Every structure is written in C-alpha cells, then in structure tokens.
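hiii so um. not sure if this is the right channel but i have a protein structure encoded as tokens and i wanna go backwards to a sequence. like what aa goes where. can anyone help
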C-alpha cells in the first residue's frame, strides 16, 4: 500500500494543496466569526444528512467551517497548537500525504455519516432526528483529534507542556486522549442503554470514524517514518558482524561510527563475517543503508533535493531537502 501511495504521489503530487494546515486554521477562524455575527447560521451549516437529501447539498462542505469547540480564552492557544502540529506533519510527510490524510478523514466522515443515517432510518428511527444527531456530532472536532493522534504517532518523544507546566511526551498525551475518548464512548453507550435511545450511539460512531482514518493511514499507508523492528534487527546484526570481523573490536581503527560508514559505503558482511568488496547500487544519504545490507528496502530519489540524492523509504519524507 505504501508503494502504491508513492506512485500516486509521483503522478499527482503537484496537485497537492500547500499550507493546508494554515487554510484549515483560517476556515476555523472564519467559522468563529460567523458564529459571532450570525449565531443562527450554524444550524444551516451542520452535516445534517436528512437536509442534504432534501436539497441542502451545501452542507457537505459548510460543516467544515463549524469550529470544533466554543470560543473562549483557550481557543487561540488551541489554534496555535493545531497549527504547530499540523505544519510539522505537513513538512514531515510532504504536502501530498498530508492532503491524503486530511481529505481521507473528511471522506470517511461523510461516508460513515451516510451509512449511519441509512442504518438508523432502516431500523425505524425518525429521519429528521437522525439527521439532527449526525449534524451535531459529526464535526471538525474529530478531524482535529485525528491530527493530534497522527502527530503523537509520528513524534512520540516530542515534549509538550500540559497546562503550561507539566512536561508530557506526545505518545503519553495521545494515550491520555484515547482514554478520554474511550470514557466518553462508554458514557454515551451507558446513556443509550439506560434511556433505550439508539441515537446516543451516533457520537460513538463519529469517534470511531476519526479513529478509523488514523488507523487506516498509519498501518496501511504510513510513509515509514521510522525503521521497523525487523529493519532495526537486521541493522544491529550487520553491525555485530562488522565488529566480529575485527576479533571483537571495531575493524576500522577503533572508530565504530567510521567503521560502520566505511562498511556501508564499500561492502557487506557475508556469513563468515568477512568484508566483501561489493559496490551497492542504492544508498540512503541519511542512514547509509544500501540494497546490499537491506535487500528488501526500497530507495527513491528526492525530486526536491539538488543533485541526484537517494533516500530509503524511512527517510524519504523526513529528511531536510538539500537546495
């Protein structure tokens, strides 16, 4: 799937929207202004599927203008936070993949909203009530949350200051958010069972739609931000064999880093821990791995770097472009 996405990027990458995060923040800010100027206008902008099917097709787009939360003191901080993490993802993944993630989340939200509406109406629910419930809970809030999850998965060791005081790694912050979302889902399910009202399952479905986008992209279309466990194991085995070739010490004068670089540039270790002078065809500019040390690894040239610079798939979208 990742190679398929790479092929799509080569063909259609030039059509990707640049600075998409900034555009999203501007739309959210415009939504806040609309809510202040014309408060009642929001009810005509929600993703009410029943209204869409009755001709109000503009709702398929206008729901993206509705802010994820009410305006307060922390709104500006929230906007700066999402601008920061969204821009970081945009630079790391590249414009095309970030576009795919954002618009994929929007598309999944729309598809799930229509399926939910059809399922509840088929079960005997009143269409107008189902449409109102979908319009209330299917919002940009979960689109923003999917960005947070993606950032936590991409930069798990990045630090943020919780309440401007407590330093927390993003991976823990992501788990904290997941725990709160699970708690909210449990609360809605409990209310639905207690009141015997299936409409309270709709917010749970909206949560699952946002998580579905994150899980699908990260596990099936992830750009390969980090080496997998298997790749790390092969790399460690390679370096162990290089050290073994020198009788338990580094065979390149005691400088392990220089020894690894020399081994990667000029050779490979065979089963008897001997350095065989075989020139590789592909070599990553960042980690130095080649098609000899990692036969299953894919390599690509970066079109944004000056000269013919080649990178492995783990660093193709994470390196700094050479101008």
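sure thing!! here u go:
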């Amino acid at each position: 799937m990742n190679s398929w996405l790479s092929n799509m990027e080569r063909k259609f990458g030039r059509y990707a929207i640049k600075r998409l995060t900034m555009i999203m923040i501007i739309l959210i800010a415009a939504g806040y202004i609309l809510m202040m100027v014309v408060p009642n206008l929001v009810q005509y902008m929600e993703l009410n599927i029943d209204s869409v099917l009755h001709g109000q097709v503009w709702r398929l787009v206008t729901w993206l203008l509705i802010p994820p939360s009410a305006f307060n003191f922390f709104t500006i901080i929230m906007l700066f936070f999402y601008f920061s993490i969204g821009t970081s993802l945009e630079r790391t993944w590249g414009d095309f993949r970030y576009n795919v993630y954002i618009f994929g989340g929007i598309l999944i939200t729309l598809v799930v909203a229509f399926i939910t509406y059809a399922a509840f109406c088929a079960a005997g629910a009143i269409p107008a009530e189902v449409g109102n419930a979908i319009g209330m809970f299917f919002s940009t809030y979960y689109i923003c949350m999917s960005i947070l999850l993606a950032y936590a998965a991409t930069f798990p060791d990045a630090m943020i200051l919780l309440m401007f005081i407590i330093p927390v790694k993003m991976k823990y912050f992501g788990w904290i958010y997941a725990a709160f979302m699970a708690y909210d889902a449990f609360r809605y399910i409990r209310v639905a069972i207690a009141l015997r009202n299936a409409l309270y399952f709709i917010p749970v479905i909206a949560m699952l739609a946002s998580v579905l986008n994150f899980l699908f992209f990260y596990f099936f279309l992830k750009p390969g931000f980090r080496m997998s466990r298997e790749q790390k194991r092969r790399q460690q085995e390679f370096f162990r064999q290089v050290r073994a070739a020198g009788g338990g010490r580094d065979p390149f004068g005691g400088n392990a880093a220089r020894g690894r670089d020399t081994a990667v540039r000029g050779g490979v270790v065979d089963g008897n821990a001997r350095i065989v002078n075989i020139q590789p065809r592909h070599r990553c500019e960042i980690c130095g791995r080649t098609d000899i040390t990692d036969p299953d690894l894919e390599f690509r040239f970066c079109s944004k770097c000056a000269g013919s610079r080649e990178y492995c798939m783990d660093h193709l979208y994470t390196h700094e472009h050479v101008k």
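oh and Confidence is low (pLDDT under 50) at residues 223-228, 247-276.
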